[in-house]
Amino acid sequence: MVPISHYLILTAILFTLGVIGVLTRRNAIIVFMCIELMLNSVNLSMVVFARFLDSMDGQIAVFLIMTVAAAEVAVGLALIVAIYRKKESINIDEMHIMQG
Amino acid sequence: MGHAVAFYVFGILAVALALATILHKNIFKSATFMAGMLFCLAALFITLDAEFLAVVQVLVYIGAITMLIVFAIMLTTRINDETRQKFNSQLWISSLATLGFLSLIISVVLRGGWGGVVTESGSLPPDMLGAIGTALLSDFILAFDVVSILLLVALIGALHIAKQDDRKLYVQESFVDDESSAVKNHVKETEEMHV
Question: Tens digit of pLDDT for each residue in A43-53?
Fold first, then answer.
């Protein structure tokens, strides 16, 4: 018997940790992992709502989000590897070629 | 009772592992902590009667995505290089801003009338896996197709991005080799003619 607000607060804490990681870390791969953390916390909140509303649509949305996350990781890691080959570094602060 | 115990144990563990992920200086250990955090979320899915999603979480996130991240770490990072600074200059201001955001969300949740309770047994259909499969191929068929094509396109694009440089270099080198050998042959022939 867990109140639903506890689940929602847990997802909010996980999302906030992900945002802090994205904003403050310098390594591109850590930033990637934090993006995954944020996606997962949103998934958890969707499953909670699906359970609370006795509806299945939330679980299907979570399945689709997981697919999109897998696609995003494949493209993003390929980009990181390509950038590392060119610049010998994956420090986010040094990637400012595209700033005008 | 067991439900509540599982929620609090895995919830606190998930928060601790997420903190370790963003704070640890060794990036490989960060990836390991992230795998543990994903496993805790799979356990939380089981407490919410989403067994299918728990299995997909373990297969896709821990089995595939974490492995991809570990490969990328091995291809790019010097793991034992702990001398570099791990945080950028925005550490304090962005932490304060996001903590303010967190308190905003928590106050909204506490005031928003989410007083319901996740009970031990819900009224979701007992054959959850079959119901999800039927829904994916009937009501959600468009989303399912779009996501499939997106995944295919993303994988082809990832292959292209990661492979591009080598192939271009190889093609240019072989072209240069052919051209120079052709020039040499031509020079040799003209010399022979002159002789």
Answer: 999 999 988 88
Question: What is the tally of structural domains in chain B?
Answer: 1
Residues of A in contact with B73 (CB under 8 A): 29
Is some CB atom of chain B closer than 8 A to the CB atom of A73? yes
CB contacts, 8 Å: A20 with chain B: 22, 94-95, 98
Q: Read off the pTM.
A: 0.83
CATH of the domain at B20: 1.20.120.1200
Name the residue facing B94 among A24, A64, A71 (closest C-beta). Answer: A24
**Domain of residue B68, residue span:** 1-83
Task: Kindly write down the DSSP assignment for every residue of A10-74, as one continuous string.
Answer: HHHHHHHHHHHHHHHB-BHHHHHHHHHHHHHHHHHHHHHHHHHTT-SHHHHHHHHHHHHHHHHHH
CB of A98 less than 8 A from some CB of B: no
pLDDT tens digit string along A16-32? 999 999 999 888 899 99
